[in-house]
Amino acid sequence: MPSITSKKNLSFLVHILGWLMLCIVLILLSPLSWRMGENELPTAFWYKQVFLVAVLVSIFYTNASIGVPKILLKGKNYIYLLLVIAGAVVFYFTIIYFEQLIKYPMRMHEFFNPDKPFVPGRRWLPGDVFQLLLYTVSIGLSTSLALVQKWQKDETVRQELEKQRINTELSYLKAQINPHFFFNTLNNIYSLTNLDIKKAQEALLKLSRMMRYVLYENQKESTLLSKEVDFIRDYIELMKMRLTDKVTLNISMDEPKNNHTIAPMMILPFLENCFKHGISSQHPSKIDIKMEIMGDTLFFETRNQIFPINQDSPEAKESGIGLVNTQRRLSLLYPNKHRLKFGKVEDKDEYYVNLTINLE
């Protein structure tokens, strides 16, 4: 609201300054350029100038508020052109009528040519051309102003609609991420109950803490990076409980020192893929997880081996929902501020992810 008010005040000030400059040009600069000696201009001259400014102001705002929005922008171009031409004729004869009313031609002739007789009906052609030029400038400026205001209004509406669309899409993506995350985690705990009941209980405690993060922090647009890192560590610890000695974890994660923020649960899908595809109950496997924070930039890397999963399992049917959603969230929340590369390592059954985010 203060921003809108300040813009309106600025627009009002620009209008005032613009008309003030016009008044200075018409009322002061023109007379000062004439050689008048000690004589003063007749009163009719000042009446004419004030009346001319008033008419130009009326034409300017009438065209800007009615002519352009209700005729030109409605596609009635020829009607608008005819009205502009008709307005020029009305403007011209209105000025002539007013001049005759205040006896402007006679007073100005007596002032500049006191020794010559006044001939009624004779007009000064350059003066008429100048007045019509003022009319044209007034129409041109008011039309430009109205078109710019229309463009700004349309742009504001477009940005608001785009913002609403992005918020709606992000809400939809979050709604997909939460069930996806809990589905995988609960599956892991279910598997753990067949191996170690005590570990399964510990896992449930960790999951409850993570649920609080998801329920509260995930509803916000951003969260502290330190909270996101704690959440990641809890998730990794939860995954460790179901790993065998055949799995080697290499984890290196910097401690966030500044009050950086990040979109919640942005990194989780990459970790899920590591533990979903990178471990095997029969073969040795290794998962590398690295996160560095340099200034305002976050660097996150993972590398894991690729093991086939059961095509009948729920994980196989998900078809990478979490990763696809994360890519979309990154493009919406960090446009031109992130770089994501992932894929299979050449000549190796390994998969890598390199993510860089500018948190500034």
Describe the structure.
This protein has 360 residues and is an alpha+beta fold. It has two domains: 2-159, no CATH class; 164-358, Histidine kinase-like ATPase, C-terminal domain (Heat Shock Protein 90). Helices cover 64% and strands 13% of the residues. The protein is built from ten helices and seven strands. The protein has helices spanning 2-32, 43-72, 77-101, 104-112, 125-193, 197-217, 225-240, 268-277, 314-318, 321-333; strands at residues 223-224, 247-253, 261-262, 285-294, 297-305, 338-344, 350-358. The strands form two sheets. A five-stranded mixed β-sheet has the order 2-4-5-7-6, covered by helices on one side. A two-stranded antiparallel sheet has the order 1-3. Strand 4 (285-294) and strand 5 form a beta hairpin. Helix 3 packs across helix 5 (125-193) and helix 5 packs antiparallel against helix 10 (321-333). The longest helix has 69 residues, at 125-193. The radius of gyration is 38 Å and the shape is rod-shaped. The model is unreliable at 1-6 and 311-319 (pLDDT under 50).
